Input
Amino acid sequence: MPLLISADGVHSTVARVLGRRSSREVVRALGAELRMAPAMPGMVELVVDRELLPGWFAWSIPLGPDRVRVGVGTTADIPPARLLAALRGLFAAQFAAEPEPGSYSAGLIQLWAPGNVINDGVMLVGDAAGQVKPSTGGGIHSGLVGAHHAARQAVHAHARGAFDRGALRDYERRWHVELGSEFRNLNSLRSIYVRLGQRRFKALVGAFGHPALGRIIAEQGDIDFPSHMFGSLVRAAPSLLALAGGRAGAAPAPARLRGRPATRPDGRGGPRRRPARGRRFHRRLAGCRAIFV
Ligand SMILES: Cc1cc2nc3c(=O)[nH]c(=O)nc-3n(C[C@H](O)[C@H](O)[C@H](O)COP(=O)(O)OP(=O)(O)OC[C@H]3O[C@@H](n4cnc5c(N)ncnc54)[C@H](O)[C@@H]3O)c2cc1C
Output
């Protein structure tokens, strides 16, 4: 029996033929790379606007001294032309500095949902396997983790001369050992996030400005394993659950968050600022400036 490693992306034909259950949450995203100095080097900027970009956010990521990657996303059925207008509007200063960007990228981001990624003679990897972080839509790290374990399993299976489902099962198991509980936690956090109104959301982010919580964010913030930090925040301030709209007895997720400790604490907390109604405001969160409009 031959082995097929299917890494054919979000529109994977192989995943479809295998009947892999895909996530109900799909983000339409549009990004651009601009040749210009970042306004805040070393700082990722997020823009949350629930009317303009329902269900998702916009981002600006410095890539070096003279390159910036910006993007917008939404889970709503918004036509690409409106997404482009949103991108250019939200980052007007950047686009004014460079009339035409170096390159655009657009596509669907299918957020992770539990599902089968192996079959007899087949391993799905990356977006094809739905290995995409439910919180940020990032699929590069988790896809590479998948590629690592798939390659390893392919070598083992080849040495044993068997590519049936049983021989490939360890690929699925190892990916879950490394990322499964984190992704389940992020799924729970995402389901809380989508239920939050703008007012509660702003209140929550405002609460993160408390010095004690800022310290936890600075010490435990980890872009690849963020859920451990949220668990610590809720343990330090159980009232966050009420702010998030959960009841202590029926806490949706944070009180039950599991996961490995953060391994790469590299963020910084920041001073508290009171959000101003109807105005843009921002807060530093673990190396990330979030703007809410
Ligand atoms: C606008 C946008 C911005 C993003 N930003 C980030 C980010 O900042 N960080 C991050 O971690 N993730 C980001 N992502 C998600 C990330 O791009 C994907 O998770 C990642 O590229 C998935 O890699 P992949 O190799 O699984 O799939 P892909 O990158 O889609 O690669 C699949 C490849 O398979 C090829 N292919 C398809 N069918 C066939 C076939 N039949 N035969 C041969 N080849 C085939 C395709 O042409 C493609 O080259 C972003 C996504 C979008 C849409």
